[in-house]
Amino acid sequence: MYLTWLDSNSWLIEIGGQRILLDPWLVDSLTFSGQNWFFKGSRSQQRPIPENINLILLSQGLEDHAHPPTLKQLDHNIPVVASPNATKVVQQLNYTQITTLAHGQSFTLNQSVEIKATPGSLVGLNLVENGYLLKELESGLTLYYEPHGNHSSTLKEIPPVDIVITPLIELGLPLVGAFIKGNKYALEVAQWLQPQVMISTAAGGDVIFEGLLNSFLQTKGSIEEFRSLLEKNNLSTQVIDPKPGDRFEVKLEKRVLNV
Fold first, then answer.
1. Prediction pTM value
2. Cα gap 24→6, rounded to integer Å
3. Which residues are registered as beta bridge partners of 145?
4. What is the distance between the alpha carbons of residues 124 and 130, in angstroms, rounded to a whole number?
């Protein structure tokens, strides 16, 4: 398996001979409802749009996961798998092949990769978006992705997972608390899933953040602190802190999985 972190929540996942573009933000700035004064993310350099994409996978409908300017530039004939809220975004952009996954539902990509939706991030008061479990059908290799660190207790019921992509550092606001949950939440999912590898996501990378909200954001923890936390809890999980734009191979030991 090869992975490329494209900053923020955006990933290119190469698994089972398929190229999956996950939560892509690749062009222009990132704002919410066009309110630049409140929050704006800008790239120090534009990311080239990857070629030969087999699937676009969207975990949420918010702009930092279903980024309209990026989705406008991508080929609208590329199949999309999305949460119900993200489906609304790609429907408005006239994508031609959309599969909506509710929690517990699965989709199989070209008989090679199974994608299963899990309960993910809470948005607002009652909207729970998607996390995803990806399984390479030939080898049984598995990957779990949840971009805000909201890990459903239903994950306890599944077998060990090989790779987990999730925040390892917390990001929050005074009085409100963490809305990107790392640290102890990442440790908890590591204890549940026993991954061989954990990879940090949702960090800034090469992104520059501005606006009123950014002046109040607080970070907690570090990659090194999380590695120490794993060691203290007798977990041998390898932690990868990716560099934006770098394609890297995730090498795993073979183990018997009853998946």
1. 0.90
2. 8
3. 132, 165
4. 14
SS (H, E, C) 101-127: CCCCCEEEECCCEEEEEEEEEEECCCE
Could you tell me if 165 and 144 are in contact, meaning their C-beta atoms sit under 8 angstroms apart?
Answer: yes
Q: Are 75 and 38 in contact (CB under 8 A)?
A: no
How many residues does the structure list for the chain? 259
Q: What is the mean pLDDT of the chain?
A: 88
Q: Is 111 left (phi over 0), alpha (psi -120 to 50) or beta?
A: left
Number of neighbouring beta carbons within 10 Å of residue 176: 9
CA–CA dist 187, 223 (Å, integer)? 12
What are the backbone dihedrals phi and psi of residue 55, each rounded to the nearest 5 degrees, phi first?
Answer: -160, 140
Q: How far apart are CA 122 and CA 130, in angstroms?
A: 9
Q: Which CATH entry fits the domain spanning 2-243: 3.30.1360.120, 3.60.15.10, 2.70.50.60, 3.20.20.70?
A: 3.60.15.10
Q: Which of 116, 69, 117, 109 is nearest to 89 (CA)?
A: 69
Q: State whether residue 249 is helix, strand or coil.
A: strand
Which residues does 174 contact at the CB level (< 8 Å), separation at least 6?
Answer: 216, 218
3-state secondary structure 204-247: CCCEEEECCHHHHCEEECCHHHHHHHHHHCCCCCEEECCCCCCE
Segment holding 43, helix H or strand E: strand 40-43
Contacts of 143 (CB under 8 A, 6+ apart): 1, 13, 15, 133, 134, 135, 161, 162, 163, 164, 165
| Cβ-contact 216, 174 below 8 angstroms | yes
Cα–Cα separations (whole angstroms), residue 212 to 38, 39, 40, 144, 206: 5, 6, 9, 33, 20
Per-residue pLDDT reduced to its tens digit, 181-210: 888 999 999 999 999 999 999 766 666 666
